[in-house]
Amino acid sequence: MFAKLFRWWRVVATGSAFALFGIGGLITAPLLPILNQLPGSQLAREARVQRVIHWLFRAFVQYMRAVGILSVEVVDAQRLKSAGGQVLVANHPTLLDVVMMGALVPQLDCVVKRAAWSNPFMRGVISAAGYIPNDASETLIEQCAMRLRDERSLLIFPEGTRSPKGRLGPLHRGAAHMALSSQRPLRPVFIGCDPPALMSGQPWYDVPSRPMRYTIEVGEAIDPPSLEGGKARGAIARQLTGRLRDFYMERLQDPD
User: What's the rounded Cα separation, in Å, for the pair 200 and 92?
Assistant: First the structure.
C-alpha cells in the first residue's frame, strides 16, 4: 500500500519537476540573451551565461532530490576542478544527463543539434551561451578545438543519442578528433542510473519502482598523442575511441 502511494507521489513529483523546468525555460529564454549583451569579451559573456545555467541546473537537481525523485553520487568529483581545456566525454543513458553535467561544471560548452536553433524557446538561450551546432564534421571539430585551446571545457556525448537500455551505443570519433586537433585531454565520465529511467522512448511518467540513483564517475584524463612523425590520424582516433569504450564497458558490466 505505502509502496504504491510512494510511487504515485513520485509520478506527481516528476511531473512537477518537468513543469518547473518548462516554466524556468520560458522565464530565462528572454533574460539570458540580455545578460549576454553586458560588457565583456565574447568568451566572458558566454561564460557568464553558462554560469547562470549551471546554477539553474544545480537548483533543479536539488529540487528533484528534495522531493524524492532521485539521489546523486559523484565519484572523483575533484577531477572536474581541472576541466578547463578538456573534452568531457560522457555516455548518455537518460534524459537528464546534460542537466547533471551542467550542474557539476560552471563553464561548459555543449554541442547541440542544429534543429534547436529553430525552437523559439531554446534559440535565444543556446545562442547566448555560445553552444556549438553539430554541423559538418570538419567545421564542428575546428570550432570545438578553438574552445579547448582557450581553456574552455567541452561536453560531448559520443553516442550522439541516448544509450540503449543497459548498453552502450556506437561511439563516434568526433571527441577523439577534437582532442587531437587541440592537443587537449579527453576526460571520460560514466553516468549510471539505477533503476533505469528516462531512457529513449520512455515517457516521463513511467517512473521506476524506487527513486533513481545517479552515479557519476569522473575518470582519469587521456592525453592525446602528438600528430607529428607521420602518425595516421584516423588510426589514433580509433585507438582513443577504443579506450573510451573500454572505460564505459568496464562499468556497464560491473554488477555493483
Answer: 10
Cell 529540487, residue located: 63
Instruction: Give the whole-angstrom CA distance, residue 176 versus residue 185.
Output: 9
State the CATH number of the domain containing residue 193. 3.40.1130
Please tell me the pTM assigned to this model.
0.93
- 156-214: pLDDT as tens digits: 999 999 999 989 999 999 999 999 999 999 999 999 999 999 999 999 899 998 999 99
Round the CA-based radius of gyration of the chain to a whole number and report it: 19
DSSP category for residue 204: T
Mean pLDDT score, 47-53: 94
Residues contacting 17, CB < 8 A, separation 6+: 60, 63, 64, 67, 69
What are residue 72's DSSP bridge partners?
Answer: 214
Find out whether 190 and 217 touch, Cβ atoms under 8 Å. yes
- Strands 212-218, 87-90: pairing is unpaired
Structural domains in the chain (count): 1
Q: Say whether 169 sits in a helix, a strand or coil.
A: coil
Separation between Cα atoms, residue 45 and residue 94, nearest integer Å: 30
Distance CA 196, CA 67 (A): 19
